């Protein structure tokens, strides 16, 4: 046992990517086990390792944690990325939850039928430009480097992840948002994040056909 | 200003009901402002009261909180319903997140198109009785304590009870194979604050009726 957290998921972003981002941002090394076959998944279930028969699974500090939000909250709490008090936590939670709603749209996008893809992409663009990015642009007008409490937190990590993910789909999406552009540069230059953004890091590429096929194969009903 | 939390939502369960449960369980009185028309929602949005233009919104301790999980987290922490340390919080989060997943199925049932309803119902029953309930039954069996986590009343107990009752509304004998969940249900229902919330005249909302669905849809579209 190495003592490092161990992540079990498919070899792709999916619901595990925010966990990889957060651990990386906190400077925490981790190991990964990749699900490649249905048999592997069924064995995990049979072994009783997945509390609700689902991944993500993160083995950390003697716990077999499931449920992405539970995992992320634990990591944020443990590595002091969750604000200094209840009110800062409330802000971080609000921001993270909003971003998660946007990321959910990106998460399911590759699995939508071809005829729905254009409409879904328009929805992502609409929500990013008209609902979420304006909210964070406004928050950053406080002139501080970070979203909450003048200190690096889970909210900053979640936002930079989301900005980059949306930009992959809509390259000019930040054009009306100067604060977010500056935020993106600032966050990308933080040492732990800079390292995560370099080739060879545990960061996963955008989903491709092969990933989609693997997911459908493993989790088909 | 009364100092009491003020809840902005429709006069329905939806995404606000878990928050009503938590406040009630904590013995906290609250006020409600019901949205009846699209104009009510538009006005709140124009006022800048809704960070992501969505309800639920709760005015509490000088904040206009949005995102139901953020709101619930804040209330749980403030009123000591969130465990005594990071690890208890992790357990509570895991249990609560799964309950929320099951809740999603229950809450979206009235909105299913007629031709999908029967299959959706079957999915609810399957997931409840094969994925979720066995886990909580086992948790209670393994430690033999009155409450799910840390031998102490927490939000996990509140949210599980809420979901057990909703599941029973869906299928009255759904707890037949889960004796410990049945006794859990009786025990938690008898906690004075919860008992009060379960009585007629409380702020608990009734199940959504089919006939109310069109009115709700109109507010959104």
From TrEMBL, chain A:
PROSITE patterns named in the record: GST_CTER, GST_NTER
GO biological process, one term: glutathione metabolic process
Family annotation (Pfam families): GST_C (PF00043), GST_N (PF02798)
Keywords (A to Z) from UniProt: Transferase
Catalytic activity annotation: RX + glutathione = an S-substituted glutathione + a halide anion + H(+)
Highest taxon listed in the record's lineage: Eukaryota
Family matches, as PANTHER family: GLUTATHIONE S-TRANSFERASE (PTHR11571), GLUTATHIONE TRANSFERASE (PTHR11571:SF230)
Protein name: Glutathione S-transferase
Organism: Pygoscelis adeliae (Adelie penguin)
Record lineage: Eukaryota, Metazoa, Chordata, Craniata, Vertebrata
UniProtKB/TrEMBL annotation, chain B:
Gene Ontology terms describing biological process: glutathione metabolic process; xenobiotic metabolic process
Start and end residues of each GST N-terminal domain: 3-83
Keyword Transferase assigned: yes
UniProt cross-references to Pfam families, sorted A to Z: GST_C_3, GST_N
Matching InterPro entries: Glutathione-S-Trfase_C-like (IPR010987), Glutathione-S-Trfase_C_sf (IPR036282), Glutathione_S-Trfase (IPR040079), Glutathione_S-Trfase_N (IPR004045), GST_alpha (IPR003080), GST_C (IPR004046), GST_superfamily (IPR050213), Thioredoxin-like_sf (IPR036249)
Signal peptide residues on this chain, from the entry's feature table: none
Family membership noted in the UniProt record: Belongs to the GST superfamily. Alpha family.
PANTHER family with a match to the protein in the record: GLUTATHIONE S-TRANSFERASE (PTHR11571), GLUTATHIONE S-TRANSFERASE A1 (PTHR11571:SF107)
Protein name: glutathione transferase
Organism: Pygoscelis adeliae (Adelie penguin)
